């Protein structure tokens, strides 16, 4: 994809082989994710915006913070800061919603929404490891209310 893609937006969900095997049936996911994200970053570098705030080139790493998974979050964010650099653009996502097999009781440990405290701790971790470019945009509650009324 080198030379063909301007913007990559990879997800990095789990750091440990154990959780990757349990929840994704892919024990080698962490190694594969690290290799792929590193290759993407080597190709296009940190995310660059134009004067209007539109992304032009680079990598935006998305991380879905999981309930009870702040240890995974810490490892992932530390790796991003160390391997890719402090100006790597990171989107910490808090929208995990349990569904499917999770609600059947098979994965009771993640059968809940992320708490506000867990999300705030994830942001603190990102800052503590030196990441400077966090996507902090939040939907405006007034806009959400208008959208649900229409």
Question: Can you walk through the features of this model?
Answer:
It is a single chain. The protein has 150 residues and is of the alpha/beta class. It has a single domain, classed as Transcription Regulator spoIIAA, CATH 3.30.750. The protein has 5 helices and 5 strands. Strands 1, 2, 3, 4 and 5 form a 5-stranded mixed sheet that branches. β2 and β3 form a beta hairpin. α3 runs parallel beside α4. The radius of gyration is 17 Å and the shape is globular. It starts with 6 loop residues before the first strand and ends with a helix. The mean pLDDT is 90.
Residues in helix, %: 40-55%
Terminal CA distance: 41 Å
What's the overall average pLDDT, rounded? 90
Q: What's the SSE pattern?
A: EHHEEHEHEH
What is the count of distinct domains? 1
The gyration radius over C-alpha positions equals: 17 Å
Which consecutive residue ranges, at least 5 long each, have pLDDT under 50?
none
Structural class: alpha/beta
Q: What is the CATH top level name?
A: Alpha Beta
């Amino acid at each position: 994809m080198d030379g063909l893609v301007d913007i990559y937006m990879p997800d990095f969900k789990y750091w440990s082989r154990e959780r990757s095997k349990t929840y994704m049936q892919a024990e080698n996911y962490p190694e594969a994710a690290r290799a792929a994200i590193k290759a993407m970053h080597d190709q296009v570098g940190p995310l660059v915006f134009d004067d209007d705030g539109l992304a032009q080139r680079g990598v935006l790493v998305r991380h879905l913070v999981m309930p009870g998974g702040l240890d995974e979050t810490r490892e992932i964010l530390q790796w991003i800061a160390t391997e890719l650099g402090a100006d790597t653009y990171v989107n910490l996502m808090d929208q995990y919603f349990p569904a499917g097999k999770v609600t059947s009781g098979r994965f009771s440990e993640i059968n809940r929404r992320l708490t506000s405290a867990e999300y705030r701790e994830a942001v603190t971790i990102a800052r503590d490891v030196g990441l400077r470019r966090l996507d902090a945009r939040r939907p405006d509650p007034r806009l959400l209310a208008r959208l649900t009324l229409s």
